[in-house]
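During the reporting period, we have paired protein sequences with backbone structure tokens. One record among many follows, to show the layout:
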Amino acid sequence: MSAYKDKKTGKWVVTLRYNDIDGREKRRAKRGFLTKREAKEWESEFLLSLNSEIEIDLTLDQFYEVYIGDISNKLRQNTVKNKRVIFDKYIDPYLGSKKLNRISTPDIIKWQNEILGFHFKDTYSRSINNQLVAIFNHAERYYELKNNPLKKTTAIGAKHPDSMSFWTKEEFDKFIAVVDDESSRLQFNVLFYTGIRVGELIAIRLKNIHFERGHIEIRASAQYENGEYIFSKPKTKKSERVVTIPEFLTQLIKDYVNRYYFIDMEEQVFMTNKSRLSRELDKYAKLANVKRIRVHDLRHSHASLLIEQGIQPNIVQDRLGHEKIETTLRTYSHLYPNKQYHLADFLNQIATQHTSSSLVPESNNPLMIETIK
């Protein structure tokens, strides 16, 4: 390695020998530095970047285990499980055996086309793409990966669906009328009239229900896996919340508890799981002749009901446990445009009222008289 001044140009040049990631000897020269100091700084930075690349000399599937190990304690168990399912099915078979620092932008484009070939919903394609983005971002941020090929590509899919499935109050009434299983009927009522997540429903213990005050405390989330319930913290800090419940639903829960539960306040009230709820929703939706929606869409149905009744977005946000109001507005933005017409009608009424009152003499104008009083 050396730095010298080119007599013809008067500028500094750096030349060096090094071994690449495959052990092959290579030479590198860089010209045009104004000072020797600048030349040596470039040499140091080049060697540092070279060493960083050698340190991350792992295949993608090898680095994925490093990545999962780094994040597993920060995420819910179910989230980690879903990440691994996506990696094993849609990333590892195509890119897993390649060296992480040798995966190129064309490799990513080819992989994206493979994913698009499955014709998933746009939101699911985006979710798969995001998993790969997260891996490379982690390598770049914490392991000094210098070349992140995802930054040169356009993400596939879409963040949010063009449309959202949900039931109106009338559709839910038709559905619930044919549900002949008492526990299922109660669970569907709770999901529709509170908007809580399925995991939050399963995690509710008797101590979390306050019948006198008419509310449920959401303090945990749960999934049913391998024959047991696994409890974890709610999705976000905002998800730990108090959800008020209407009087009729309070009474339904109270009657159910009085019939089937004893004094153990730690006992789960809704012993079910997402798969069972999904099967029963399919069954009863068919009987009621209403459109098929997912269990999670009952949450969207609740939000739709609130918005249709003019409930403000910040109240909807708190009730659903969204961390940011932007999430509420973005998720349900398609439901808010109708409110603009109500606003226009309101302004029209005000303007009409103002025009009419301005034609009445001040002494006979009831609005003016009221003001003077």
Notes: The radius of gyration is 30 Å.
